[in-house]
Write a structure and sequence with these properties.
The chain is mostly helical. The protein has one domain. It is built from 16 helices and no strands.
């Protein structure tokens, strides 16, 4: 009796690459990269990062508590604000993608589409749309950090009520409402119609744009936050140093390790895209899945580094540095 050999490479993950869960996640990342980034951060920070911080050996409990509170506050605010800001942008870009003739000049469509079959398949147009979608996270980075600082005392006392080092602070409810997607489409269409935007999109369409945006967003957020902590009168002086050093060390290590891991993952990422393409070659949304993977990859890499690998080290080291170089 002859038994045919099985090709494990063909059967092992075929169900994974065309699974509904994976395709929905990649489509979500492509449609709203900024919100995908915030949702990933929220999921990891809700459990993983606090456990990692609290596991830091030989570290003051109060410093652990305020580091946990900062992580929780930051991600909750990030998700809420990004959700409100990104929705009209996503709706606006969606309207342009569905009916580009209504919002873009014919010259713009021809210029961005190039040799691609459709405008949405064009790398230049994809880059231009992601400048808006991922750029939303970049725009809110500094305001979010300042709001985080204002609410930090309240969150610290909410989760760790016995902590006397943080003064209780009241905050007003924030109501987030999106704007009219039609008006947003007109505005973004006018921006994309500009020659400079088109040429920039064509020139940078093959660069690691999602990784650069993620890193820049983290740098702006941390820079704004530590500046605010230094000037804050609501945070006890002896807690400022560890909090500032923790944030600074975490961000530097996150960005450095993120680029390092991203470089190492280049070949595996190419293999993933090839298998994804093979499993979904008849799917009209294939290009969306590929674009979504390119956006999700750096977000997940930096998220795992920032929320799982680094907190244990940064919380421990921050306290040691503060003892040698205290911030007053």
């Amino acid at each position: 009796m002859k038994v045919n050999s099985l090709d494990n490479s063909n059967i092992s993950f075929s169900g994974f690459y065309n699974s509904k869960a994976l395709k929905k996640a990649l489509e979500f990342a492509e449609n709203n990269g900024a919100l995908f980034m915030s949702a990933t951060s929220l999921a990891l920070s809700a459990l993983v990062r606090p456990i990692s911080i609290l596991s830091a050996p030989k570290t003051d409990k109060e410093n652990k508590k305020i580091a946990c509170a900062k992580s929780i506050t930051s991600t909750i605010l990030d998700f809420a604000i990004t959700f409100a800001i990104s929705l009209p942008i996503v709706r606006g870009m969606g309207a342009i993608s569905k009916n580009p003739q209504k919002y873009l000049k014919q010259e713009t469509i021809r210029n961005l589409q190039g040799a691609s079959g459709t405008l949405t398949d064009s790398k230049a147009y994809t880059f231009a749309s992601q400048m808006f979608k991922l750029g939303a996270g970049l725009v809110i980075a500094a305001p979010k950090a300042l709001l985080n600082l204002e609410i930090l005392p309240f969150i610290t006392n909410l989760f760790f009520p016995k902590n006397d080092s943080i003064v209780r602070n009241t905050s007003e409810d924030i109501n987030f409402r999106g704007k009219d997607g039609h008006n947003m489409s007109k505005l973004m269409g006018k921006i994309i119609d500009k020659k400079g935007i088109q040429e920039f999109s064509k020139k940078k369409s093959d660069t690691n744009f999602p990784m650069h945006i993620t890193a820049l967003k983290d740098a702006i957020t941390t820079g704004t936050f530590i500046t605010g902590v230094s000037a804050s009168k609501k945070i006890d002086g002896k807690r400022k140093g560890p909090l500032i050093y923790n944030s600074l060390i975490s961000t530097i290590l996150c960005i450095a390790s993120g680029y390092g891991i991203d470089s190492v993952m280049k070949r595996p990422a190419e293999k993933f895209i090839n298998k994804l393409t093979e499993a979904n070659k008849q799917d009209p949304k294939l290009q969306q899945y590929i674009n979504g993977f390119k956006i999700a990859k750096p977000i997940v890499i930096m998220g795992i580094a920032y929320y799982l690998l680094i907190p244990l080290f940064s919380t421990f080291v921050a306290e040691r540095i503060d003892k040698k170089y205290p911030i007053k």
